[in-house]
């Protein structure tokens, strides 16, 4: 069992989500940065889809009541482990030790792991060997922050049981992770014909700044307002996908994240391709991004 | 005639006249590579896996004929409603009719779930009497109780769970619309026929 001493700004239980229920208004949710969740699970010898903690920024503190193999992936930054709550070993002062991300970490019974503030990126994933045991809702342990489905956000004092998702012993000591850089790749449409030629051009030729309104539902971008051909025309609600770039009437685009509503009434000018979706999880307010149109 | 648009590299968006007929046809065909089918007001989203040949899939779905509803009377869900909503008076004022007439016209219509969205189990019901078309609130309520029966624009709906909401409240039903312990958690699924029946409080 592990005990959350502090969840930091936000810590959620996530796995790879619950696709298949969108027709009933339930989105897929799941880890925002899926590759990092998969990697964390592989590092500790879990099934790739095992349940992890997704934590925003720094500040998550976990007290391990049992010795455990742990991995932290996602954002870059420090990971500290210090000697524990209620554990004393005479003559051995507990100096915190710095640990690496993207490596299996061996945490002893009673020790406390702390996620430091990210130096790059925003969301970190903490996998524990065997995974975290929480009840599944519609086939997933993911917290959908918009739909209010799945385990409640993690609070200080929460006790989390370990699951049975471990499959193999950890195989590697460290994985070199290189953050993908360069423009976000997008496919124009499905409603690019609602926008002026200038707007379509601006999407992929001007810089976009990440606004402060960013969460798992959507990431708002600031830049040249994207103008429509017919500003007063209304779009009948239609299904939307993660990565869809919706443009509300004010012209500031919003890129939909994993907890997006299943339908939306704003035209989608372009959609971020699947391979670049994980990068959205690591955007921070003030980051500047470029987009490039691609075809598949 | 189906117009097929790409919606990123994992989905196609189909513009169709008969949304539910297209959903029925797609579900019956069970095309390889298709992972999810979602209805919108006038569109159908067809999600596919990474390995799907998207251009072949697009050609394939463009040629699909919508499937007619099965013969016989379609199943209809009747929801008993206590018409005590806070916005009855406002709707009556906009429509230029009495509150009693608002209720009579809301009860008098046949509805069908067009699609779900906004929140889990929230069904957009087509069929509202055109005289009851009222825009949603400029500033949504922060808390609308579960079971609230509401209208906005050309739609009616019942809030399946407590949530914020900007629709005009006409009343409430005690029938549960959302049950996570049920194999299909939503009572109102796309295509379902719905009627409202007035009951006294």
From TrEMBL, chain A:
It holds the Pfam family CT_A_B. Residues 23-296 form the Carboxyltransferase domain. The keyword Transcription regulation does not apply. Residues 84-104 are annotated as: Disordered. One of its GO terms (molecular function) is hydrolase activity. The keyword Cytoplasm does not apply. Keywords: ATP-binding, Hydrolase, Nucleotide-binding. InterPro entries: CT_A_B, Cyclophilin-like_dom_sf, PxpC. This is Unannotated protein. It comes from freshwater metagenome.
UniProtKB/TrEMBL annotation, chain B:
Residues 2-188 form the Carboxyltransferase domain. InterPro entries: CT_C_D (IPR003833), Cyclophilin-like_dom_sf (IPR029000), PxpB (IPR010016). GO terms for molecular function: ATP binding; hydrolase activity. Keywords: ATP-binding, Hydrolase, Nucleotide-binding. The keyword Nucleotide-binding applies. Pfam families: CT_C_D. SMART domains: AHS1 (SM00796). This is Unannotated protein.
